Structures are given as structure tokens and as C-alpha cells.
Amino acid sequence: MDHFELIDLLCVIDACVSDRSAGRVVPMSRAVEELRVLTGDFVSSDEDATSALTQVALERGCAVLFDEQPGADIIS
Q1: Which of 44, 67, 53 is nearest to 10 (CA)?
Q2: pLDDT tens, position by position, 2-25
Q3: Residue ranges of domains in the chain
Q4: Contact status, residue 12 vs residue 34, Cβ threshold 8 Å
Q5: Average pLDDT of 31-58?
Q6: 72, 3, 27, 43: which is closest to 12 by C-alpha?
Q7: What pLDDT score does 26 carry?
Q8: Which residues contact 74 (CB under 8 A, 6 or more apart)?
Q9: Which of 52, 54, 64, 76 has its CA 20 to 30 A from that of 29?
Q10: What residues have CB less than 8 Å from 68, skipping those under 6 apart?
Q11: What SS3 class is residue 63?
């Protein structure tokens, strides 16, 4: 969470959380994309963004869905 502003992380988590029967769930692929758009940071790694967002989501009592798969955007 070193180079991301806490307010940006909180805004993204609040925007991406969905209430499901299993509880409050944050899909990480959407959250990372929202963070990039909000901050204009397209340089930081997905891992850094995911780590910062996960920490905030868990502290807010949300479950985290790691729904991004490496190479998913590569068409064979």
C-alpha cells in the first residue's frame, strides 16, 4: 500500500464490493482496473495493486475473489 493513497483504495473497494449470499465480495480484476482508471497509474504491477486492495478489502470485512488468470487476454 506504499504508493497508493488510502482514500483511492477505499473508494475502489466501496465501488466494487457486491453483496452476495456468501457475503460482501470484491472481484479483484475489476478492483485493479478501477484503481488504474481512478489514479491514472498504469505502471504499477497488478500484484502491487492487488496486494494493496486486498489488504483494505479484508480490513473492511470483505471477501476477495481473485478472478484474474495470467494470460487470459492472450488469444491462441
Answers
A1: 53
A2: 689 999 999 999 999 987 666 789
A3: 6-65
A4: yes
A5: 95
A6: 27
A7: 94
A8: none
A9: 76
A10: 28, 29, 32, 46
A11: strand
